[in-house]
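can u do me a favor
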């Protein structure tokens, strides 16, 4: 797999955030297809979407949680979703550490 870049990586929590452009990543609300070269664009955008899925699966295999944020989302919405995912990751890490003798994880602020 070619090298891919995570837009925001919370390495300790293993949460990977991707900020996806509505056009390039096929947002369900704003997906469009240019009027010219339609076939080429259709293939190109399908390839992007497929690559996103492969990247997400690869990161999941490595124990990462992937959060995708659409370009059209408000910053507040995006941050709320990211924080919610990080809280749930922290909560499950706490459950895993219970009984294992591992030090207690601190919940996110
Ligand atoms: Zn969109």
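np, heres the sequence
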């Amino acid at each position: 797999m070619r090298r891919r870049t995570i837009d925001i990586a919370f390495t300790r929590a293993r949460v990977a955030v991707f900020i996806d452009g509505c056009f390039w990543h096929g947002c369900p609300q704003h997906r469009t297809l240019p009027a010219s070269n339609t076939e080429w664009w259709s293939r190109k955008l399908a390839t992007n979407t497929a690559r996103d899925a492969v990247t997400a699966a690869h990161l999941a295999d490595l124990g990462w949680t992937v959060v995708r944020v659409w370009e059209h989302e408000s910053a507040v919405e995006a941050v709320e979703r990211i924080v919610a995912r990080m809280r749930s990751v922290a909560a499950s890490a706490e459950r895993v550490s219970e009984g294992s003798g591992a030090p207690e994880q601190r919940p996110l602020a």
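Strands lie at 8-10, 15-20, 65-70. hope that helps!!
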